[in-house]
User: Fold Secreted protein from Sorangium cellulosum.
Amino acid sequence: MHCRCVRIVALLAGSLATTGCIGAEIEEDVEDEVDTSGSTVLTTNGYLANALSPNALSPNALSPNALSPNALSPSALSPGAVAALKNPGESGDLARQLLRYIVGCALRPDQTFSFSWIEGRGLIHREVYRGELGLAPWWAADGLEDGHHQRLITACIASRANWYGVSVMVSLRNGETPLGSQDVERAIFPVREGAFWGNLFGATPYARACYAPQGVEHARKAQRDCAAGHVAVDPATGAATVQPCGPILIAGSCDELCTRVDMNGGYYSHCLDDPWSSPWVRTDVVITSYLTR
Assistant:
């Protein structure tokens, strides 16, 4: 793909007082950007800082399939989605975190999603989420109805989940133009972690992951557990168990589930969509993740 220059965007942490509320339209540019993690985001093409909590993918927070029928615009949200985003409790924090990553995957850097919510103490928080990858920028004006882009956004969201909630730089690769990789990116991110796919926007939401066997140990050392699963100890038996990241089910080894890695792009082009149900049906909407050494 055409390579853009690296941008370092400092996102402001904390609360900004405002009299606004949910209902503002998508803006083309804003002065203040609020990110509750307080981290700096380095972004160019498909590599980003990622710290989405798996709990944010729970339907108890904000359900992605409640967003897809409408435009990804504050004024187009359903009453249920508005209530989820304005909730001052933990579920509201998770809903806002999920929306921030959805916006990052779907919209372009020149598009933002702005709204505000009020804490129990009456403190007003103004949120401004800026797009990053631009996988479905037209969603700002229309619903996300086609299955291909629903799956593409799902794979993007799942690939950005982190068991520990810490920010880890990853390279996301796919045949879609925004996720193409150049030589420099491949040199910086040479360790294949795994792949992600699914559809969180469908009537029966699901997400899957597989791991690249040669990258499992490195990924866990880098605090990236969602492709291979988080290793924990069963308190009852003392045995080691592998736990998935929320609803992202671990399908197994990518070497067994997916086609060979694309020689030019470095991504898996097809993986078994549901290996427990069919050994034949494959999906071609897959995002492959890479890590630094």
Notes: The first strand starts at residue 7 and ends at 10. The first helix runs from residue 79 to 86. The helical segments are 79-86, 90-106, 147-159, 183-188, 216-221, 254-257. Confidence is low (pLDDT under 50) at residues 1-45.
